[in-house]
Amino acid sequence: MNAQKLSKRLEAVAKFVPTGAVMADIGSDHAYLPCYLIHKGTASYAIAGEVVKGPYESAVGQVQKENLTEKITVRLADGLAAIEEADHVDTVTIAGMGGPLIVSILEKHPEKLQGVTRLILQPNIHAKVIREWALAHQWAILDEEILEEDDKIYEILVLQRGQMELSTAEILFGPKLSLRKSPAFTKKWLREKDNWQRVLQSIEGAEQTPEIEEKRAELTALIHLVEGVL
């Protein structure tokens, strides 16, 4: 992977960035995504934010190597603190970390999102908590994608400002993804169902405490949700 050829996962993130966007990539690592978007003419300007010094230095080096120092600013900052009001950022990408960490980044500096109209979020796990956050903070799902790369399955959520309503199943599976039922979607949830059934079997012989009963009920409900959507 490099600034001209992204991974399948980051390429999928890139396609949701609007043409002409001023974008901020939070947790940018080598800044491959911002460099790619500038080279393609998709983004007009980009901020690459990194909280760790090593990746920050890698991003600085990459931007210099690509001769993009006039189009990409690299900042060492904690999450959304990399965004300044004068940047006029309208699109934020956060990719390659867990859903709860992405939510914590969004919640730590909410004022930085004031001018942002699109969030493109790619959680490695627990996309559900991002949908819950979106519901609570007046963001609506514009689109979703699920894909498999190197035997790992990733979800991408594209959010825009607005109201939405989601059922329990839609919060878990994604309203767009559960309608399309792609091979990656089916594979992910059959795998999850198998895991839950194994846990359910493992607690069958356990002492029936209130905690065990609660866990059994939770797992049974999740299994029924999967069976209902597939």
Automatic annotation (TrEMBL):
Its EC number is 2.1.1.217. Signal peptide: none annotated. GO terms for molecular function: tRNA (adenine(22)-N1)-methyltransferase activity. It comes from the Bacteria. This is Cytoplasmic protein. The keyword Transferase applies. GO terms for biological process: methylation. The keyword Methyltransferase applies. Keywords: Methyltransferase, Transferase. InterPro entries: SAM-dependent_MTases_sf (IPR029063), TrmK (IPR006901).
